[in-house]
Design a protein that fits this description.
This protein has a five-stranded parallel beta sheet, sandwiched between helices. Strands 1-2-3 form a three-stranded mixed beta sheet. It starts with a helix and ends in a 9-residue tail after the last helix. The protein has 472 residues and is α/β, with parallel strands linked by helices. 55% of the residues lie in helices and 9% in strands. It has four domains: 2-91, 2-Layer Sandwich (GMP Synthetase, Chain A, domain 3), CATH 3.30.300; 121-291, Rossmann fold (3-Layer(aba) Sandwich); 296-371, Helicase, Ruva Protein, domain 3 (Orthogonal Bundle), CATH 1.10.8; 376-471, DnaA protein, C-terminal DNA-binding domain (Chromosomal Replication Initiator Protein Dnaa, Chain: A). Bound molecules: adenosine-5'-diphosphate and magnesium ion (MG). Magnesium ion (MG) is lined by residues 175-176, 232-233.
C-alpha cells in the first residue's frame, strides 16, 4: 500500500509539472500554484482518473481548465485514461504522504494500445480533444480559408489535391482544433479508415524508444498503415535530422499510397528552421494555409458561441469588452471568458459590471499590452508625420512613389506591431488584405537592400516607442 501511494504521489507530481509545461502563459502557469493545492486524493479508477476537490464550483472550474491537460500529461507518462473527473470529497486528515491515494489499477502501458493484430485499425495514437470538432469551430475571415481546406480534406481524405494539407499560424489560433476536427469527422463518418493523431514531440519520443528497444520495424509499420495521419506542431521535429528523415520516409510512403497527411506548424514551410529543402518542397506540394489572428468580429462571435454552450447570460457589453481587449489569440479569449464565468458562479448575487470585468481581466489585459498595443491609427499618424504626407493621401488610391512608400511602410508596421489581422488592417487603409500583404512584403524585401529605407523605418519605429528588433 505504501508503495502504491508513493507511486501515485510521484505520478501526480509529474502530472502537475507536465500540465504547467503545457500552459502557454506565465499567468496560467502561476495560477496552477494556487489551484493545484486545492486538489487531493488523485487516483486511477478503472479507466478514469479521479481527483477530489472540496467545492462543486472547483469541479466545474478545474474540469474546464485542466481536465484535458491532465489527460495529456497522463498520456505523456504512458497512462491512457478515458476521462479525467473531478469529484467533491472532503479532504482526508493530513497524512505524511505527499498525496493520499487509494487503490490503483496497474497503469496501461502506452504501447499496449498498439497491439496491431487485435486492432488492425488504429483510431488514434493520442487522444483527441472531444470538443475540437467542426461544429465547435467558429469561422471568420482569419481562418475561413484553412477551414474550407480542412472540410474538403475531411470529406475526401487522400482524394483531393490538398495533400498534404499544411496549416500554419501563431499559437492559440485553432490549428490543433481544426486538425482534430478533420480527425473526428473521418472517425465518425468513415469508420473503416484508420486515423492517427500525434504531436511531433510524441512522434519523436516514440521514434527514440523504438530505436532503443529495437522495434523500429514495428514503429514504421504502425504509421505507414494509417489512412489519415495528423501530425501536430511539425516545427518540433523540423530541425532534428534523424527523426526528420524517418518522418520523410513515412510521409513519402503514405503519399505513394494516396493516404492523407495533415500537418500543423507555427511557421510556414519555407520558414521551418533546419528543415531540408526537399522536405519543404514536398510540404508545399499540397495545400498550405494560414490561420491568422481573429478580427474583432470573429473574437466576439467566438465568445458568443462559447457562451451559448453554457448556462449563463453575460451582458453584450461585457463580451464586447473582452473581444476588444483580448486580441492575441483564441486561447487567451477562452481564458478570459472562463475567468468571468467563474466569478459569476461564485457571486450569484452580484451583478457583473464592466468595472468588475476590467478588474478580473487586468492581468490578461496587461499581458496583451506588453506584447502589442499600438493601433493602426497611431502607426499611420507617425508615418505621415515622418514623411510629411497627409493621412488622407496615405488612404487614397493615388500611386505616386512619394505616397506608395509611406503607405507600404505603414502597412508593414501595422502587420508587425499590432495584433490586427490583414483584413482588419486592409479596412483601416481602405484597401484589400492582399494589397496590405503585398505592401508589407515589398518593404520587408527592400529593407534587406536599401539602407536609407532601413534608417527611416528605424526612426519611425523608435518614435513609436519600439525597437527595430521588435519587427523580426
Ligand atoms: P493552436 O493549436 O493553434 O495553438 P488550438 O487549436 O489549441 O490552437 O486552439 C486554442 C483554443 O482556442 C482551443 O480551446 C480551441 O478550441 C479554441 N479555438 C481556436 N480557434 C477557434 C475557433 N475558430 N472557434 C472556436 N474555438 C476556437
Ligand atoms: Mg496546437
Amino acid at each position: 500500500m505504501d508503495d502504491e501511494r508513493k507511486d501515485v504521489g510521484s505520478l501526480w507530481n509529474r502530472v502537475v509539472s507536465q500540465v504547467k509545461m503545457l500552459l502557454p502563459t506565465e499567468m496560467e502557469r502561476n495560477r496552477t500554484e494556487r489551484y493545484f493545492p486545492l486538489m487531493h486524493s488523485p487516483r486511477l479508477e478503472n479507466d478514469e482518473f479521479v481527483i477530489a476537490v472540496n467545492e462543486q464550483i472547483q469541479v466545474e472550474m478545474f474540469t474546464d481548465l485542466y481536465a484535458q491537460l491532465i489527460r495529456e500529461a497522463l498520456h505523456a507518462d504512458g497512462i491512457e485514461v478515458k476521462s479525467v473527473r473531478f469529484v467533491v470529497e472532503k479532504k482526508p486528515e493530513e497524512e505524511t504522504a505527499p498525496a493520499p491515494v487509494q487503490r490503483i489499477k496497474p497503469a496501461v502501458a502506452k504501447t499496449a494500445s498498439y497491439s496491431q493484430n487485435e486492432h488492425p485499425l488504429i483510431t488514434s495514437t493520442m487522444p483527441m480533444h472531444e470538443n475540437y470538432t467542426f461544429h465547435n469551430f467558429v469561422v471568420g475571415p482569419s481562418n475561413s480559408f484553412a477551414h474550407a481546406a480542412a472540410t474538403a480534406v475531411a470529406k475526401n481524405p487522400g482524394e483531393t489535391s490538398y495533400n498534404p494539407l499544411f496549416i500554419y499560424g501563431g499559437t492559440g489560433l485553432g490549428k490543433t482544433h481544426l486538425m482534430e476536427a478533420i480527425g473526428h469527422f473521418v472517425v465518425s463518418k468513415m469508420p473503416k479508415k484508420s486515423v492517427c493523431y500525434i504531436t511531433s514531440e510524441t512522434f519523436l519520443n516514440e521514434y527514440i524508444n523504438a530505436i532503443q528497444n529495437k522495434t523500429i520495424a514495428a514503429f514504421r509499420e504502425r504509421y505507414r498503415k494509417v489512412d489519415l495521419l495528423l501530425l501536430d506542431d511539425v516545427q518540433f521535429i523540423a530541425d532534428k535530422f534523424n527523426v526528420q528523415e524517418e518522418f520523410f520516409n513515412t510521409f513519402n510512403s503514405l503519399m505513394g499510397l494516396r493516404k492523407q497527411v495533415v500537418m500543423t506548424s507555427d511557421v510556414a514551410p519555407k520558414d521551418l528552421k533546419g528543415c531540408e529543402e526537399r522536405l519543404i518542397g514536398r510540404f508545399q506540394q499540397g495545400m498550405v494555409v494560414e490561420i491568422e489572428s481573429p478580427s474583432y468580429e470573429t473574437r466576439l462571435a467566438i465568445l458568443k458561441f462559447k457562451m451559448a454552450a453554457r448556462q449563463h447570460i453575460i451582458p453584450d457589453e461585457i463580451l464586447k469588452f473582452i473581444a476588444e481587449n483580448i486580441r492575441s489569440h483564441v486561447r487567451a479569449i477562452e481564458g478570459a471568458l472562463n475567468r468571468v464565468l467563474t466569478f459569476v458562479d461564485l457571486n450569484q448575487n452580484l451583478p457583473l459590471t464592466l468595472e468588475i470585468t476590467q478588474h478580473l481581466l487586468k492581468d490578461s489585459i496587461a499581458e496583451e499590452k506588453v506584447i502589442k498595443d499600438l493601433t493602426v491609427d497611431e502607426i499611420m499618424r507617425t508615418v505621415s508625420i515622418f514623411y510629411g504626407v497627409k493621412i488622407e493621401d496615405i488612404l487614397s488610391p493615388c500611386r505616386t512613389q512619394t505616397l506608395v512608400t509611406p503607405r507600404q511602410v505603414a502597412m508593414f508596421l501595422s502587420c508587425k506591431l499590432t495584433t490586427k489581422s490583414l483584413p482588419e488592417i486592409g479596412r483601416s487603409f481602405d484597401k484589400s488584405h492582399a494589397t496590405v500583404h503585398h505592401g508589407a512584403q515589398t518593404i520587408q524585401k527592400r529593407l534587406d537592400v536599401e539602407s536609407d529605407l532601413k534608417k527611416s523605418v528605424e526612426e519611425i519605429v523608435s518614435r513609436l516607442g519600439r525597437k527595430f528588433s521588435d519587427l523580426s
